[in-house]
Specification:
A hairpin with a 2-residue loop joins strand 2 and strand 3 (38-42). This protein is 43% helix and 16% strand. It is of the alpha+beta class. It has one domain (4-53). The chain has 3 helices and 3 strands, in the order E-H-H-E-E-H. The chain is globular.
Length: 63
């Protein structure tokens, strides 16, 4: 079985408070599923979500 995270465990990995993560779930901005009323997160899905969310920084050449 794949590694699953609770909201509190996820809050230790990403810089968001548990209440913010719940709000992101309600707004469907983060990958999750519910089991027995609890929000659960697959580690692999969160890693992919973080990778997709990263903004690429482009430096301008300053002369």
């Amino acid at each position: 079985m794949e590694d699953l995270l609770t909201i509190n465990q996820l809050a230790k990995i990403i810089p968001f408070a548990p209440w913010s993560i719940r709000k992101m779930c309600r707004e469907r901005r983060i990958p999750y599923f519910r089991l027995g009323g609890r929000y659960l997160f697959k580690k692999s899905s969160i890693s992919q979500w973080i990778s997709k969310s990263e903004k690429k920084v482009v430096r301008a050449n300053v002369i």
